[in-house]
Specification:
Number of helices: 5
Order of helices and strands: HHHHH
Oligomer: single chain
Largest sheet: none
Number of domains: 1
Number of strands: 0
Radius of gyration: 20 Å
Structural class: mainly alpha
């Protein structure tokens, strides 16, 4: 089952906003000689979003960091077992991050950020939301691996692209 890659779209949008924010920061600091008080904080928060949603997007198309060359030499069944074990470990990590991330975001929700005075929990909420997207993508990848194995196709451990 293929879902639209929302994570990549969010990451690209946040990246564009980050670029514009940094340009604004440079303009106000060096041209106007009056640096914007919120642009540095906003850039930091946007960067967090770019990283976490970008990582979730990488999981969705299997372009995340991995060392698949050893596993790809295995016969089909052991390759599937390794893929499912790795997927289960990643899923456990993602679900742990969702749980603890929500708790962390909730515990500081009422604490305003320094410059922009937005709830700090809103920024910390990026972590569990992006990890929830990642968890869904891991489950879909595991299901795709099982389907590929049952059809007699090779289980892919990475996107298989040259960069």
């Amino acid at each position: 089952m293929r879902l639209p890659n929302i994570e990549e779209g969010v990451s690209v949008l946040l990246g564009i906003l980050l670029f514009v924010t940094v340009l604004w920061q440079v303009f106000t600091r060096y041209v106007l000689n009056d640096p914007s008080g919120m642009s540095e904080e906003l850039a930091r928060y946007l960067y967090v979003g770019v990283v976490f949603f970008g990582a979730a997007g990488a999981v969705s198309d299997r372009s995340h960091v991995g060392i698949p060359f050893v596993v790809e030499k295995l016969p089909p069944l052991p390759r599937l077992v390794v893929a499912l074990l790795v997927g289960a470990l990643v899923l456990a990590f993602c679900l742990g991050m969702v749980w603890w991330g929500w708790r962390a975001a909730g515990s500081v929700w009422d604490l305003p950020s320094e410059a922009m005075e937005i709830p700090t929990g809103l920024v910390l909420g990026i972590v569990p939301v992006s990890m929830a997207f990642m968890a869904v993508r891991v489950v879909l990848a595991m299901a795709e691996d099982v389907r590929a194995y049952t059809r007699g196709q090779a289980v892919e451990m990475s996107a298989g692209r040259d960069f």
